[in-house]
Amino acid sequence: MKKRLLLAVAALALLTAALAGARLLGRADEAVPTVRVARGDLDLSVHTTGELRSARSAMIAAPAVAGTLQIVRLAPSGTPVKAGDLVVEFDPSEQEFTVEQSRSELEEAEQELVRSRAEAEVQAAEDQVALLKARFAVRRAQLDLAARDLLGAIEVRKNELTLEESERRLAQLEEDLKSKATSRRAAVAVLEAKRDKARLALAAAQQNIENMTLRSPIDGIVVLRPNVDASGGMFYSGMTLPEYRTGDLVWQGRLVAEVLDTSGIELQAKVDEADRANLEAGQAAEVRVDGLPGGVFTASVGTVSGAASRGFFDSESRRKFDTTLQLTAPDE
User: Smallest Cα–Cα separation from 81: which of 58, 104, 100?
Assistant: First the structure.
């Protein structure tokens, strides 16, 4: 009897558990939302900030000329220029003095060379005369010795000694003349080197004078660079340097100005590593400029760096990638 009672209780418990589970499953199906999966495009937008710059520019640097470079003419910032227009002109006084000095040294070297060649020709003629005399002496001694059958032993011996002496002098003279000719050629070569050196110095000074006038290689707008030497070598954070002005002294190789070609404008920016994979060249973009509120410019992605770039003083831990955007219709 007890066994039947226990079986009935167990069956009732199982039935109750089944009913409770069915009720919970029914509620779970009602609480979980469902949607049908469909294939499509994912719209991802990348936002970043950057700086507008000219896509093409030309640097105007002071020429590599020894001495002091002083600006005498300078196009102000914002001046529109064409290719070939003057941008910077330096004082050519020192180079003009060098030209006159080099020209004087060149003329002096040419006169010395003419004189040396004339003296060499005169000396060569004299040497030829001496050589002919020595050969004549040898020939005469040979003729005197040829009549030995008609002379006594003493006279024959004297003629033999005379012939030997004449031949020795002729051989010595031929060696001396070779040495003299070599010395004369060396002296002429030294003067020719001196003349060539003066000629090169003159050409370099004339070229330096031409380099004193710097012209724009492209069409664009002039932007003067800060005078880094205005503070006497001192520089601190937040310091503002003045632009180059007429009368300033410039070190050789310093960037004085830059010509910006405004026909092509691009935006230089940096994107995070997570956004780098979503960018590729040719994608469409929109550019908004702080100086032109409300304006939206169309652009396209130009280049995306494949390597991260960080500045020396950059404290951010995130990796940044350089990116350029080409404006398709820049504002004039």
Answer: 58
The rounded distance, in Å, linking the Cα atoms of 178 and 166 is 18
Beta bridge partners of 39: none
Q: How many CA atoms lie within 13 A of 159 on its CB side?
A: 18
For 199-252, the pLDDT digits (tens) are 898 888 888 888 889 999 999 899 998 888 777 666 666 677 888 899 888 888
255 sits in which H/E element: strand 255-272
What contacts 303, CB < 8 A, 6 or more positions away? 281, 322, 323, 324
Tell me the per-residue pLDDT of 35-48, one tens digit each, with 9 for 90 and over.
888 888 777 788 88
**Which amino acid type is present at position 11?**
A
User: Distance (Å, rounded) from C-alpha 55 to C-alpha 125?
Assistant: 72
What would the two tokens of residue 104 be? 């004087």
Angle at 238 between CA 79 and CA 220, to 5 degrees: 15
> Is the separation of the CB atoms in 104 and 111 below 8 Å?
no
In this prediction the pTM is 0.58
**Residue 147 in tokens:** 């009549």
Residue position matching structure tokens 């910032």: 77
| Cα distances (angstroms) measured from residue 78 to each of 87, 222, 242 | 12, 5, 15
* Structure token digits, residue 150: 């008609």
pLDDT in tens, 59-107: 999 888 877 788 999 999 989 999 999 999 999 888 888 889 888 988 8
